Amino acid sequence: MMTASFFAHYDAIPLSLFILDRNGRIAHRNEYAISRFSSYEQMDFIQSYESILRIKENELTPYLNKALTVKPGEYISIPLPHTDEMIRLSPINDELITFIIVEDKEAIYKKGQQKDMETPFDEKSEELQQQIHSLIDENPDGIAFINERLHLTLINQSLHHMLGYSLDDLRNAPIEVVDKQTIQTIGKHFELALHGDQRPYEIEASDVHGNCVHLLIKTIPIHTNGRFRGAYKIVKDITEFKDAQLDALDQAEQLRSLIDSIPEFIIFKDENGRIIEMNAYAKRIFGIEEGRYKGRTCEELNCSSIDAYHLLKNNANTDCIAWEQQTKVEYEYELELASGEFATFEIIKSPTYHSNGKRKYLIAIGRDITKRREVERELIESQELIESIFTNNADAISVSNLDKEIIQVNPAFKKLYGYTDEDTITHLYNIYPDQNKEEANRIIKAVLDGEGVVDFETVREQKDGTSIDVSVTYSPIKDHEGNVTAMSAITRDIRDRKKTEELLLRSEKLSAIGQLAAAVAHEVRNPLTSVKGFIQLYKDRINDEILELMLSEMDRIEGIINEFLSLARPQAVTYQQIDIMALTRNVVSLMNPELLLNKVNVRTAFHTPSLMMHCEKNQITQVLMNVIKNGIESMPDGGLLSITTCNSDTHLFIEIADKGVGIPKDRLERLGEPFFSNKDTGTGLGLVVCYKIIHEHHGTIHFDSTVGVGTVVTITLPLQH
Q1: φ, ψ for residue 414, nearest 5 deg
Q2: Closest CA to 335 of 314, 319, 355
Q3: Which residues in 218-243 are b (16+ Cβ under 10 Å) and which e?
């Protein structure tokens, strides 16, 4: 590659010089050539100069071909017609040739001899020499003169200041200025200059202070009348230039080292798509040998990688897009490497232009993003999994910030609290009952303090204001620095569990009552029998009204004891297939006298005439009679009692509704507890027995009541058991 310093050397030569390629095209021309042929400086082909130099067209072509065959340092010469000059052609390398116009020494010598014979001695030559010496002393470049005996006889002030040595120092002790090898180099170039090769050359010297000085020297031989009279050496101090050049080379080496250390392929291309340079990573992954890529397009590379060929083969399209759109192009490409593994590359192509808008070069950078893509896929899969768990979880999940603002909820949350998909829940206070507002602050404080809040049982409020029992687990959400930024809450509906717990508690109460009843019944029945016997014995001595009252109360006590015993002792229960509809009609008929007596009208709606069910006839009869009797007693002034039946594939539903006084909510929740009754004289044992019977039949009994409106009792029984 021809560098700027390379051409600078040729520009310093005070001769008309061109650098030609093997086809005769001009690669470079120095300032002397431009000034000599200034009116033709737009000419680009050597054939144009043939016409300027009055040489027949294509006459130089064979000399160009011949010049490429001689050794470096040698040249071939041809006379320039109608002048005292010659053309010298000398090879630089296999592609470039120097074309120098120099004086024809032989022609000048012959002409000088002829002129000496015709022209007398110039009396003003001494004055001319003085002018020349003055010009030499004032010249900013260092100048040294060597006479025909090769002795140093003159140095100017510039050279003295450049090195700090005097003429005697340089003449007597040159070894202090330059080493032996450099002295040989100076002698070699002096010989070349004597033979017409006046090319500049560089040396290193030491100044008077021992500092290294870089010098560019050009030797100009002097001949008069064909005789060698000495030579001038023009010396330029290029230390600063060399230092800058070394710095540039050092920076270039550092840049190269940096680019080679980057684990991304980097390719520089010229405006025609030919590779200028590529880094070590690119050579490795594409399997390209060193020195086998410069000047080639990517399509011309012979890649050893299995699939890299296709990447390079198809890169021209993206090159065109980058050049035409004058913008950076980014795309991804997946290829199979020589190892058999697939790799995904993120490729960026960026064009650069000259100030006049012409293309300069294009850089292509490829980054292996295979691992990043794998991580992204794993993150996407994890995110999809988390979203699936969040969305499809049966428990209500919410996420709120530290200001108690709800950020996100799942469908189960909206379903639990009675919100639709269109509803927006903005604040935790929306689901907190008024008496529990302060609870939110305590929970957030506990989460920030790192205390676990797990399975916290509390009450929440649905959209319609209904309170529900829930169990909530709160967890902190932290950022990458471990700071709590939000809070998640998993809410579970425990209403069914609460009902189950109530049923278990009620069952335990029934068991306790049964055990108590067994003891009480036996203790009471024996003295009761004795009392009843004495009353029968002395009935003739007791007033009839008092006797009737005493016997009535004794029967009442005995009835209570029998109810106790029904709870306490196992009874002979015979389950059989019976017609439950016929059983219900019979119960209504049996209760008809009491209904008429209390002015209660009955309205029945039986969905089917007959329905067989496996049950204990007497126990079901007892339950129906007890419920109907309670309905009659709730309407002291009479009213309407409705009995309705229906069934599904698995259960029978019997609904008994009255228009009585109703039951307050706080008392409704305690129905079925022993010794709790809404009647002043009631024991509460009747409903206890009813609950026990229905429970043993694997059914349920449910009360729904409104004060002043009435009560609805729903009995659910399985059709098959």
Answers
A1: -65, -40
A2: 314
A3: bbebebeeeeeebbbbbbbbbbeebe
* Residue 99 to residue 89: CA distance in whole angstroms: 5
- What is the residue range of 204's domain? 120-243
Residues 191 and 128 in one domain: yes
* Residues 6 or more apart whose Cβ sits within 8 Å of residue 285: 265, 305, 308, 337
pLDDT of the residue at 41: 44
Tell whether 388 is covered by a domain: no
CATH code at position 200: 3.30.450.20
- The CA R_g of the chain, rounded to the nearest whole Å, is 60
Mean of the per-residue pLDDT values for the chain? 78
Task: Indicate whether 198 pLDDT > 80.
Answer: yes
> Above 50 in pLDDT, residue 681?
no
Q: Which two tokens stand for residue 393?
A: 């979880």
Taking only the tens place, the pLDDT of each residue in 164-188 is 888 888 888 778 888 888 888 888 8
Asked whether residue 582 falls in the same domain as residue 705, the answer is: yes
Same domain, 148 and 104: no
Write out pLDDT tens, residues 207-248. 988 899 999 999 888 877 767 778 888 899 888 888 877 777
Residue with tokens 């920076």: 251
Q: Pairing relation of β-strands 85-91 and 76-79?
A: antiparallel
**584 and 613 assigned to the same domain:** yes
CA distance 386 to 376: 15
Comparing CA positions, the residue from 478, 498, 476, 497 lying closest to residue 488 is 476
Task: Kindly state the greatest CA–CA separation across the chain.
Answer: 200
Domain co-membership, 591 together with 708: yes
User: 308 and 228 in one domain?
Assistant: no
Model confidence pLDDT, tens digit, residues 408-462: 888 888 888 888 888 878 887 788 887 777 887 888 788 877 776 888 888 888 8
Q: What is the number of domains present in the chain? A: 6
Could you write out the DSSP letters of every residue in 680-709? TT--SHHHHHHHHHHHHTT-EEEEEEETTT
What distances in angstroms separate CA 587 from CA 591, 643, 660, one per listed residue?
Answer: 6, 11, 21
At 622, the pLDDT band (50, 70, 90 cuts) reads confident
| Lowest mean pLDDT, pick from 161-165, 383-387, 464-468, 530-534 | 530-534
Distance from C-alpha of 509 to C-alpha of 674, rounded to nearest angstrom: 8
d(C-alpha 299, C-alpha 317), whole Å? 12
Contact assessment for residue 281 and residue 257, using Cβ atoms and an 8 Å cutoff? no
CA-to-CA distance for 337 and 114, rounded, in angstroms?
80
Q: How many whole angstroms separate alpha carbon 633 and alpha carbon 680? A: 12
Contact yes or no for 655/714 (Cβ under 8 A): yes
**Same-domain check for residues 35 and 51:** yes
489: pLDDT confidence band, cut at 50, 70 and 90? confident
pTM: 0.38
Q: 233 and 219 in contact (C-beta within 8 Å)? A: yes
Q: How far apart are the first and last CA of the chain?
A: 101
- Note the pLDDT tens digit of each residue in 282-291: 887 777 777 6
